[in-house]
Amino acid sequence: MLNFVEIKDQMKSDSIALSFKGNVTFELVDSIIIIISDKLDAIESDINTRKKMYGILTECLQNLCNHTDDKTAEINSNYDIKSVAISVTSTDTNYEIKTGNFVSTERSVQLKSRVDEVNSKDKDGLKALYNQILTNKVFSDKGGGGLGFIDIARKSGEKLEYDFQKVDEKYTFFSLKIKVNKK
Fold first, then answer.
1. What is d(CA 163, CA 72) in angstroms, rounded to the nearest whole number?
2. Residue 177 DSSP code
3. Domain at 4-181: CATH code
4. Which regions of 10-65 does DSSP assign to beta strands (E)?
5. Beta-carbon contacts of residue 56 (< 8 Å; ≥ 6 apart)
6. Domain limits, the chain
7. Tens of pLDDT along 116-173?
8. Has this prediction a pTM greater than 0.85?
9. How many CB atoms lie within 10 A of CB 171?
10. Please, which residues have CB within 8 angstroms of residue 164's CB and are 6 or more apart in sequence?
11. 119/125 Cα distance (integer angstroms)
């Protein structure tokens, strides 16, 4: 699957629309959206594909901004807990959005369960799960209702690829890969 080193190597080989590694803020999210919008407007003629990409990328960036664990953690000599990675690449057949961020090892179990649940659903199952969460109105301590992965899967029409790489007893690096087929 995808890990932090592979993200860096991937950036060298594919046609890159964008790559970023560092601390993410809401201001940076806005800037990245503008950059990708301009690039997609220039290279993608299908408006539906562009809309999917904007929606998925926005959700991914919001997730990175809102759900990166322990934003007050000290920087370890081997890695920066507050740092995230994102790349957007274009191949002949699809676009790929890859994200990575550190999460607590404890939280990685919940994330894996959530992504597995989303990946187990077909189109109708995702819609039903989405509506069920909206109806239940249950929100996490960070304000989310758990709709992010569902929304990404619905928009991409693909299963979410992921990997968890344990870096120490406290932290795990969570990588997510989303494919959006070109028309």
1. 24
2. E
3. 3.30.565.10
4. 15-22
5. 97, 152, 155, 156, 178, 180
6. 4-181
7. 999 999 999 999 999 988 888 665 555 555 789 999 999 999 999 999 999 888 899 9
8. no
9. 22
10. 108, 111, 112, 172, 173, 174, 175
11. 10
